[in-house]
Amino acid sequence: MQQYFIKGRAPRGVFQISDKDTAKHMFSVMRLQADEQIVLVFDDGIKRLARVVDSQHQSVEIIEELADNVELPVSVTIACGFPKGDKLEFLAQKTTELGVSQFWAFPADWSVVKWDEKKVAKKIEKLQKIVLGAAEQSKRNRVPQVSLFANQSDFLATFDQFDCVLIAYEESAKAGERATLIEVLTHFTGGEKILFIFGPEGGLSPDEIERFEIKGGRQVGLGPRIMRAETAPLYALTSVSVLTELMRA
């Protein structure tokens, strides 16, 4: 069954799909007809079963609320140093499928790419479309928030809003650090906010590690193998799912 995210509060009675892109996909691409059912998710994150009333007028009505909630029990923000190529697009899609709450990127010391404000704005718009599509495909209750930071000081200013800041650092992995991730995640009871930080292709610089630790970040190893910039965030989110969802089911 198709799922769509609709901005705003859930209305009562029959209403028209006002978002042009959503309406186009529903009635032109999917060719939905009267009495066909869909799932709509509004800003409250509650899934609602709805039926098409009139495809020509693009109107639908809500039938009932659904109890389905597939969000992670903890809120995870993934922050990556600006990578090369289309890796950011890949990560935005895959981290959304794995349950990320926020997807961020920042100019790391060793980031090769340099983006001006115009480039950043276009990138955000593209990433927002990607996470929306991925959230619909994976039947999420929420669409992840996307942010690209123009400078690292703005990124550092966000640390205080998290219960835990974990820095994925390859030197920690090389040194055999394997306890912190399990220790942190197994003590969470639900609702906590976690920030995971990952470097670009060249990794995080020693100066960055120091700045992040001064703000309360903790180094964490992600197993004995050294992963690529586009692999490590997926490993981290999978670990969160296993330790906070599957082992407690």
Radius of gyration: 20 Å
Beta-strand content bin: 15-25%
Distance between the termini: 25 Å
Overall body shape:
globular
Number of helices: 8
Largest sheet: 6 strands, parallel
- Share in helix: 25-40%
**Could you state the order of secondary-structure elements as H and E?**
EEHEEEEHEHEHEHHEHEH
Q: Give unreliable regions as ranges.
A: none
**What structural class do the secondary elements suggest?**
alpha/beta
The counted number of beta strands is 11
- Mean pLDDT over the residues: 93
How would you write the strand order of the largest sheet?
8-7-6-10-9-11
Structure explained in plain terms:
The protein starts with a strand and ends in a 5-residue tail after the last helix. The mean pLDDT is 93. The protein is of the alpha/beta class and 249 residues long. The longest helix has 21 residues. A six-stranded parallel sheet has the order 8-7-6-10-9-11, sandwiched between helices. The chain contains eight helices and eleven strands. One of its GO terms (biological process) is rRNA base methylation. Specifically methylates the N3 position of the uracil ring of uridine 1498 (m3U1498) in 16S rRNA. Acts on the fully assembled 30S ribosomal subunit. GO terms for molecular function: rRNA (uridine-N3-)-methyltransferase activity. It is an enzyme of class 2 (transferase). It is found in: Cytoplasm.
